[in-house]
User: Which sequence fits this backbone?
């Protein structure tokens, strides 16, 4: 009994400490800026209290997790690709076309990216929902070693932070026997 009460007390203390720490970090990230109105009626903002003006406290911006992407063996979320995020008007697999039959288990995969892919963006290719190869700043891939049968190809567009911003519609192909 005494062990259980001590454990609960330590757990409550740890939880309280973490809560106070989170609140302290959140308050520390808030920033005060000053709204200054000049003689011509123009408004400027500054972090310098010596310029006077009305003090405004800005809340911190929301943060986004920077954890690494899931391993290729992890199940991938499927869904509608939606509209491409700007600056791309078009992001589709142009070759092979849906329903294509290929031989020898290999094929080129070409994407239509319009305007051209930015230097800080990459594309990764999925085969049957699994990551096929490392993300590249390329609109063309070469697939080899595909087994006989039907396969589903899809490409993902990654932004400069490695986050998936768009997926192509899936394209089904069939690998025929030689």
Assistant:
């Amino acid at each position: 009994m005494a062990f259980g009460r001590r454990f609960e007390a330590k757990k409550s203390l740890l939880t309280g400490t973490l809560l106070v720490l989170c609140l302290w970090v959140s308050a520390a990230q808030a920033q005060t800026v000053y709204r200054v109105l000049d003689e011509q009626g123009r408004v400027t903002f500054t972090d310098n209290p010596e310029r006077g003006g009305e003090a405004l406290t800005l809340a911190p911006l929301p943060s986004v997790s920077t954890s690494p992407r899931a391993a290729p063996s992890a199940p991938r979320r499927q869904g509608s690709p939606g509209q491409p995020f700007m600056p791309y008007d078009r992001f589709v697999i142009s070759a092979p076309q849906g329903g294509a039959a290929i031989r020898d288990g290999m094929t080129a995969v070409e994407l239509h990216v319009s305007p051209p892919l930015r230097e800080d963006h990459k594309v990764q290719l999925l085969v049957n929902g699994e990551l096929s190869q490392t993300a590249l700043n390329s609109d063309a891939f070469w697939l080899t070693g595909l087994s006989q049968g039907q396969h589903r190809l899809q490409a993902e567009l990654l932004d400069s932070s490695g986050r998936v911003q768009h997926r192509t519609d899936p394209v089904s192909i069939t690998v025929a026997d030689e």
Observations:
- The two ends are 73 Å apart (CA to CA).
- Residues 90-175 form a domain with the Immunoglobulin-like fold (CATH 2.60.40.10).
